[in-house]
Amino acid sequence: MSAYSITEPSRRAKLVAGVLVCLYAFITLLPLLWIISTGFKSGPDSISYPPKVIFEPSLEGYVNLFTTRTRIAPEALAELPPPETFYDKIVRERDMVIAGPSRFGERFMNSVIIGFGSTFLSIFLGTLAAYAFSRFKVPLKDDLLFFILSTRMMPPIAVAIPIFLMYRELGLSDTHLGMILLYTGVNISLAVWLLKGFIDEIPREYEEAALIDGYTRFQAFRKVVLPQAATGIASTAIFCLIFAWNEYAFAVLLTSGTAQTAPPFIPTIIGVGGQDWPAVAAGATIFLLPVMIFTILLRKHLLRGITFGAVRK
Amino acid sequence: MTDTPITRLARATPPNVAARVRGLSDRTIAWLFVAPTIFLLLAINIFPLIWTIRLSFTNFAANKPNAEVKWVGLRNYERILTDDGIWANMQNTAHFLIWTIALQVVIGFALAWLINRKFKGNDLLTTLIVIPMMLSPAVVGNFWTFLYQPQIGLFNYAVEFFTGTPANSFSMLGSVTLAPWAIIIVDTWMWTPFVMLICLAGLRSIPDYIYEAAEIDRASKWRQFWTITVPMVLPFLMLAVLFRGIENFKMFDLVVQLTGGGPGNETLLASIDLKREAFEKWRTGYSSAYAIILFVTVFGLASIYVKALNKVKER
To answer: What is the predicted pLDDT for the residue at A2?
Structure first.
């Protein structure tokens, strides 16, 4: 390492760059900070003008997100026994009582089931296919990237038309299985492509040594290749998971009840006279926060997936 | 050897079967590994495409499955290509596409260029900047409608704060002139990090010795930028533009949540219009033809573009 490099930017250049990038980061994160803070505002605070930066935190948004409520007359409210829990108390302050749980929990669980289900399936099938593409002569091999790109050119709505008809015939509309298969079908070509890149980097000599030691191909795959590819598999999995987690177009067209995921559900959270913004923000926070944390923790592994593997590292 | 059911089974199995399972030929393994993926791709990608092509020549309506389906030849295509409304949507889409790409390229490249100066903490800042693009466009788009509220929205407040224009005097999503810009702003906010990441990969791929040589030749910083930095990053930048172009041509989730195509039809992009035709008016045959036309358009444009990209790469 040289002590002085003529290509190293000057300290002032670095300082200017740092300040400008910080400024951009602040502006770009402001809407997200606003989502999180709105989730902790009371109804009136959320729609006050000028927008409130400092406010008294309230769990009203979260309570409204998870419950359905009915308004009752103040006289009837006065006759009720005192509220037992904090959420009862919050709701009573608005002259309402809790009627039951909302659908948010269910929708969130659907997102979890479909997200993880399709990720598991994509990775399971994708790893097998990627290994075959990487190590054997398989037809279609050279067309793989072209194939991924061309399937991505089809607008999701265009794909949804025949899928909608097909699922209606097969009884897969609005089912978890149907959505898992669909997301797997969308993700798998990219997953194979990324995984092939990772497996290509594992030297063939490792397996050949194992084969000479008396392992079968299958054993060599399981005991030599899989552990070596673990990092690649994990980063591909994150990418598949984020796609399935965020997907909206198929979800809104092909699911309506039992299998509906959170993205089509959150925008439909309505309060009295329009959207209940603290509740929407609370739902958005619960839904987005895992992805934010994932992104920060796993930043080094995400780039390949983002760029279709076109840019290595 | 312990006598477990498995070992007993192993002993009972005729040796030739065991040999066959043990020594699955490479060819068999290859097929066994690839087959499920191929099947899924056929079922979810190829078969629907063929079905769409077939439907596009009929007057089929998905909400009337029992009605007689008539073969109408190319009439659906003819009607779409001569429809003024669809040309208007194509113009909306083009406006959206050109401006989002232009803004994202300029801001994304500038950010990458600044981050590449390797100041302290650039790693953490890069990660923070990337966050918006990892989030669900529908959920985020929905929340942006709150930021754009004329009376109470943070965006309008910021505009008032910096320019003095009263916050309640304009509505980003309600005004015919502003709505196309409202969706461009949110898309740029969301996807600039993508262009930035690819540019950053490009900048980092330039070896230091090229700059050192230029420095020894006393080339000015300005000249270095235009003769080294820009040409070497260009292939990366063009790749970013390709991905963004394809994605934004089929833009649906973000804009449907922001404006739903309105006000009027000012932000009606091709995909949103397609959704209306297919799932609200239930003109399945017609919208299949529409889908095929969109697909062919992207495919054609992307193919020409990739040719140009390869030429740049060869230089």
So the answer is: 44
pLDDT band at B63 (very low <50, low <70, confident <90, very high): confident
Q: Do residues B268 and B92 lie in contact, with contact meaning Cβ atoms separated by under 8 Å?
A: yes
Annotated domain spans of chain A: 105-267+298-306
Model ipTM? 0.87
From residue B140, alpha-carbon distances to A32, A69, B228 in Å are: 9, 26, 38
Q: For A182-222, write each residue's pLDDT tens digit.
A: 999 988 888 888 898 889 888 988 888 888 888 888 888 88
- Which chain A residues contact residue B249 at CB under 8 A? 155
Question: Tokens in use for B90?
Answer: 């194509």
pTM of the shown model: 0.88
Q: Please tell me the predicted confidence (pLDDT) of residue B20.
A: 47
Coil, strand or helix: which one is B58? strand
Name the segment(s) of chain B with CATH classification 1.10.3720.10: 80-314
Question: Could you tell me which of B51, B306, B63 has the C-alpha nearest to residue A166?
Answer: B51
Grouping H, G, I as helix, E, B as strand and the rest as coil, residue A100 is strand
Extract the residue ranges of chain A whose pLDDT is less than 50.
Answer: 1-3, 313
**Tokens 């909608």, residue?**
A164
Token pair 């054609």 in the structure block, residue? B300
Is A231 in contact with A163 (CB distance < 8 Å)? no
Q: What is the CATH number assigned to the segment(s) A105-267+298-306? A: 1.10.3720.10
CB contact residues (below 8 A), chain A span 213-252, against chain B: 216-218, 242, 245-249, 252
Q: State whether A136 and B26 contact (CB < 8 Å).
A: yes
State in words which class domain B80-314 has.
mainly alpha
